[in-house]
């Protein structure tokens, strides 16, 4: 059986987010899949024959138009009225653009579904707008909850990034478990072990040294539990902190002023460094040069940074929350999100115990091989085929 698919590609824009990367890699893999008879790309009410160009994916060159659009988007997200107007207008544009294509399966990789009388699939990345609403802007929460409830009511099939989120969604929505599929993500091929000579030029630009720091990658926001990481790191012996300072990179998230103030104090004491948002070109080298990756997040629908670290040959210390044990497998050291003492002990062990490190690196690379975009496309196509067979 072959299927005809319309894939929404609105998330594929610069700078590329996690959902944008998922949309792009899935689209690329689906293009090569023999059971996809027709694959159309759809964004903002229009069809496109090709995926966006390489500079959009790298995030290295962001135009003034894109910066202005980003400013407008941030303003819209702070206004309840603007959000509602945006929601209704975009919904109308999408619905009009899809008329006449009801014999295709429409797949949204980014939660939202337009009005469409044909078969519909949506990827549900996490339930944080419901379960961690206090970690989002209130106006944005209302918008997301409205759209996600619409998706739950209208999707014929749902895809999640992890088994944890699948089970969470079954419990939350009451939707039959056989309509929800867990399809794991993968890391981009740029994330792999790299020798010092290859990495050093990138590290020098940021004032870093090979194997000379612990890395955190993620949006700077309360849900990522960065304050606990800073507290645990401060408990390490000063000699350890000075030898392997904590390096953080990621966007300024919502309600992050107190976190940034805490990072700044750590920087002033010489054992932390905030790099801001890194381009997709530089980020794989910053991963590969790290001694350790730390990710104490309270909640993740998948936790892609953990997988990127494993693929890069970097040991991982992370929380045992939500989907993270699935992603890290048996290769990481786990702690309760708020257990500062255990986190401190794990950080020190992972930095200093070379025997453990060698085994963790080997186990991590083996575990990472079980994730691929080919697997993601294969299992996503299985969802399409099951839906088509039931029509």
From TrEMBL:
It comes from the Bacteria. Residues 18-184 form the Glycosyltransferase subfamily 4-like N-terminal domain. Keywords: Transferase. Residues 213-363 form the Glycosyl transferase family domain. Signal peptide: none annotated. Gene3D superfamilies: Glycogen Phosphorylase B (3.40.50.2000). GO terms for molecular function: glycosyltransferase activity. GO terms for biological process: lipopolysaccharide biosynthetic process. InterPro entries: Glyco_trans_1 (IPR001296), Glyco_trans_4-like_N (IPR028098). This is Glycosyltransferase. It comes from Venatoribacter cucullus. The lineage of its organism: Bacteria, Pseudomonadati, Pseudomonadota, Gammaproteobacteria, Oceanospirillales.
């Amino acid at each position: 059986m072959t299927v005809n698919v319309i894939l929404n590609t609105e998330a594929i824009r610069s700078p590329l987010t996690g959902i944008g990367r998922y949309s792009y890699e899935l689209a690329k893999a689906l293009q090569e899949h023999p059971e996809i008879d027709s694959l159309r790309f759809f964004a903002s009410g229009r069809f496109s024959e090709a995926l966006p160009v390489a500079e959009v994916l790298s995030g290295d060159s962001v135009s003034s138009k894109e910066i202005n659009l980003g400013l407008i988007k941030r303003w819209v997200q702070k206004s309840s009225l603007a959000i509602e107007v945006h929601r209704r207008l975009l919904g109308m544009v999408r619905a009009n653009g899809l008329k006449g294509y009801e014999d295709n399966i429409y797949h949204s990789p980014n939660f939202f579904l337009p009005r469409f009388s044909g078969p519909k699939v949506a990827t549900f990345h996490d339930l944080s707008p419901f379960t961690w609403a206090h970690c989002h802007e209130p106006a944005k929460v209302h918008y997301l909850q409205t759209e996600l409830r619409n998706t739950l009511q209208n999707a014929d099939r749902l895809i999640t990034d992890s088994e944890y989120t699948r089970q969470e969604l079954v419990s939350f929505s009451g939707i039959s478990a056989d309509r929800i599929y867990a399809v794991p993500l993968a890391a981009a091929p740029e994330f792999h072990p790299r020798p010092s000579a290859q990495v050093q030029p990138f590290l020098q630009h940021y004032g870093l040294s090979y194997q000379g720091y612990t890395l955190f990658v993620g949006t700077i926001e309360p849900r990522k539990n960065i304050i606990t990481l800073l507290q645990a790191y401060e408990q390490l012996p000063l000699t350890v902190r000075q030898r392997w300072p904590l390096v953080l990179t990621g966007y300024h998230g919502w309600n992050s002023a107190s976190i940034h103030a805490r990072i700044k104090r750590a920087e002033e004491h010489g054992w932390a460094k905030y790099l801001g948002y890194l381009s997709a070109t530089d980020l794989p080298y910053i991963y590969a040069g790290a001694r350790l990756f730390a990710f104490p997040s309270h909640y993740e629908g998948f936790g892609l940074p953990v997988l990127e670290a494993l693929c890069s040959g970097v040991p991982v210390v992370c929380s045992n929350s939500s989907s993270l044990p699935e992603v890290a497998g048996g290769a990481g050291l786990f702690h309760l999100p708020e257990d500062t003492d255990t986190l401190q002990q794990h950080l020190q062990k992972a930095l200093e115990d070379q025997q453990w490190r060698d085994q963790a690196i080997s186990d991590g690379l083996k575990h990472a091989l079980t994730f691929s975009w080919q697997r993601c496309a294969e299992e996503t196509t299985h969802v399409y085929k099951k839906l088509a067979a039931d029509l």
